[in-house]
Amino acid sequence: MVVCRVGGRDAEQSSHAVVVRCYDGPLLALRRAGGAAHGRKGYPDEIRRKGPCEAMSRVDLVLLHAPAVFDFRERSIMFGPVSDMVPSTPIFEMYPLGFTTLAEYLERHGLRVRIVNLAVLMLNRPDFDVEAYLRSLDARVYGIDLHWLPHCHGSIEVARLVKKVHPDAPVMFGGLSSSYFHEELASYDCVDFVLRGDSTEEPARMLLEVLRGKGSLDEVPNLTWKDASGAVQVNPLSWVPSDMNSISLDYSFNMKSVIRYRDMMGVVPFKDWLKYPVCASLTCRGCTHDCVTCGGSAYSFREHFGRDKVAFRDPDLLVRDIEHIQRYIPGPMFVLNDFLQAGRTYTRDFVRGLERIKMKNPIGFEFFKPPHEEFYEFLDAHLPDWSVEISVESHDDGVRAAFGKSHYTMDQVEETVRAALNNGCSRFDLYFMSGIPTQTAESVRQTAHYIGELYARLGNDPRLLCFISPMAPFLDPGSRAFDDPAAHGYTLRARTLEEHRQRMVMPSWKHIMNYESAAMSPDEMAEATYDAGLRVNRIKAEAGIVDAATAARTEARITEARVAMERIDRIMEGPELTHDLALWALKEEFDRLSESTVCEKSELNWPHSVELKHVASAAGLLVRESAANLFARVRGEIVPPATSDQHPRPVVQPAVEPEG
C-alpha cells in the first residue's frame, strides 16, 4: 500500500482501488429538532455570517456533474468501447436532462440555480484545479447527480471535496442510481440528502424552502436524510406526478446561465457539443416495456421508483419544447422515449404539431418496436428531415426474447427498415449489443454476419447505420437481471454502491464490469465484441457506408485495443507492486484507444447547418439577458432568475397519494 496525492487529497492506494479519507463537516443544524430549521430568518448560522456583498452573489443551488472516475487524469484505465454509442467520452461528461428541468423549475419558483459540468472543465484543461474551483463557488446547497451508475466514483469524490471546502453547506444527490442506493448513499459522511424518484423538481423546491427555514425535513416527499444522531431517515416516495406538464426542457436557460456567469464550458452538455450541438426532448417518464437488463424498465419504475404508470408530456408542450430548441440551436434533435407508447391520438397531434412549427432541424425518433409502413408515410407527409433509431440488441429472436424483446421479430425489423427508407427516412440507426442474457460469443459474431446480409438485402443503402457495442460497464441497478441475476444467467461481481465504486477504477472495461454471464466469460465477451466490431467495420467499408480512411482508422484502433487488453492481462498476472507503474506507462495509449473503438464517434453524427435565424435569436437573447444582469448590478440587486419563456402548466397532483 502506498500513499499518494489524488486531486489535492491524501489517499491510500492499494492496487487499483483508492480509499480516500472523507473530510467531515459538522452536521447540518437543520437536522436538529426533528429536521426543523432554526436561526434568524430561518438560515443556519454560517449563512447569517455572510456579509451583504457575499449574500448577493450567493445562489441557492449549484448542480455539479462529476466525471465517471474523479481522478481520471491521474489514472491509467482502458475504458474501451463503453461510450462508443453516445456523444460523450468514456468519463461520461454528459449531464442528465434532469439538470435542465430541475434548474428551470426552481428558477421559475424564485430560486437561483447554476449548472456546472465539472467533467467537461476537467477534460478541457489538464491543469484544472477542482478543489480551488469548488472553493470559489458560493451556494446554500450543492447538488450532485448519480443518475447513471458509472458516476458512482466521481460523484462521491466531488461530494467529499465540496464538504472539505464548504463544510457547512448541505450536499444532496438525485437520479435513478441515487434512488436505488439511497440508504447506502446517505450513509456517506459527505452526503446529507438524497431525493428519490424520477420527478424531483417539486421535492427539491420543498427541500430548499425547508433549508430557508420554512417547514421541516420530514415533510419533504421522496427525501432520504440523516437526523441529529446521524441515523438515516426515509420519507415516503409519494411525489410521482401523473404527467410531465409542470416542467420545461428549456435550453435557453442554459444559454442565459452562460451570460449570467460568463462561463461557457461549465454549462455545455458534453465536451464536443459546440461542434455537434445535438439536443434531446423527452416524451415521458417511465416505460411500458420490460427489458430485463434495463434500469428504466416498467419493472424498475414500479418496484424502485414508485411509478406504475407512464407520465407523458402533453404533445402540444412537447412541440413547444422542440420549437424553442429550434429557435436557438441549429443541431439535430432527438426525441427520447418512444412516443408511440402514448397511442394514435398523441402521435397524430405530436407529428402535426411539428409540421405546424415548420420543423427544419433534423429530428430523430427512438422507437421500442418496429412501426408499420403507414406510420412512415404519415411522417414523410408532415416532416422534411426525419430519422429513426431502434435498439434490437441481437439478430437472434431467441436471445432477444430472453432479453425481454419477444414482442417483435427480426423479420419485422427488416420490414420496418425497408419501409422507412422507402418513405423518405434520412437515416436509420440499428443498434446491437453483446453481453445480454443467453447470448454466446458465437452468437455475437453471428450478429456481425447478419448485419452483412442485411446490408446486401437492402442494396447497401448508405442511410442504414448498424452498430454493435458491449453492455458495459454495468448491468443496471434496479433491473430484473440485477435484482435476480441467477434467473437471467448472471453472476454479480458487485452489488453495493461502494463495491461499484471500487470496480470503476479497475484497469480495463472487462475488469470493471459488474456482472458475468453464464453464456460467455468476460474474456470471451471482450474478444467477441472486438471480432464483431472488426467485421461490422469491414462490412460498412465494403458497402460504402463509411469511407476507406475512416474504416482503416477504426480497424487499426480495434487491433491496437486487443493488444492493449492483452498487455493489461499480463500486467495483472505479475506482482501487485508493479501494477500501477506498468499501467501508467500505457496511459496515453489507453486514452487514445478509448475515445472511439469499434466505430468512429463521428459515425453517430447527423448532418446539420447554421441559419441566420439561429444567430439572430441567440444575439437577441444575449442582449436581453446582458441588459437584465447589468441593470440589476447597477441597482445593487440580485440578478433575476433565468425564467423560462415557455410558461409551463401548473403542477399536477401526484399519481401516488402520500402515505399516512
Characterise the protein shown here:
The protein has 26 helices and 20 strands. With 660 residues, the chain is an alpha/beta fold. It has two domains: 30-244 and 618-634, 3-Layer(aba) Sandwich (Rossmann fold); 279-604, TIM Barrel. It has a seven-stranded mixed β-sheet, sandwiched between helices. It is globular and about 65 Å long.
Layout: helices, strands, pairs:
Layout: E1 2-6, E2 9-14, E3 17-20, H1 32-35, H2 45-48, H3 52-57, E4 59-65, H4 98-108, E5 113-117, H5 118-124, H6 130-136, E6 139-145, H7 152-165, E7 171-174, H8 176-180, H9 182-186, E8 193-195, H10 201-211, E9 223-226, E10 232-234, H11 251-261, E11 279-282, E12 284-285, H12 298-304, E13 311-312, H13 315-328, E14 333-336, H14 344-356, E15 363-367, H15 373-382, E16 386-393, H16 397-403, H17 410-422, E17 427-434, H18 441-457, E18 464-470, H19 480-483, E19 490-492, H20 497-503, H21 509-512, E20 515-517, H22 522-542, H23 548-573, H24 579-584, H25 587-595, H26 612-634
Parallel strand pairs: 4-5, 4-6, 6-7, 7-8, 11-14, 14-15, 15-16, 16-17, 17-18
Antiparallel strand pairs: 1-2, 2-3, 8-9, 9-10, 12-13, 19-20
Helix pairs in contact: 4-10, 11-26, 13-14, 18-22, 22-23, 23-25
Brief account:
The chain has 660 residues and is α/β, with parallel strands linked by helices.
Query: Mean pLDDT, as a whole number?
Result: 86
Q: Gyration radius, to the nearest Å?
A: 25 Å
Which architecture of the largest domain per CATH? Alpha-Beta Barrel
> Largest sheet, described in full?
7 strands, mixed
Number of discrete domains: 2
Strand content is: 5-15%
CATH class assignment of the largest domain: Alpha Beta
Beta strand count: 20
Shape: globular
Q: In which range does the helix fraction lie?
A: 40-55%
Strand order of the largest sheet: 5-4-6-7-8-9-10
Report the oligomer.
single chain
Number of helices: 26
Low-confidence stretches: 1-56, 650-660
Determine the CATH topology of the largest domain. Answer: TIM Barrel
Query: N- to C-terminal separation?
Result: 51 Å
Class from secondary-structure proportions: alpha/beta
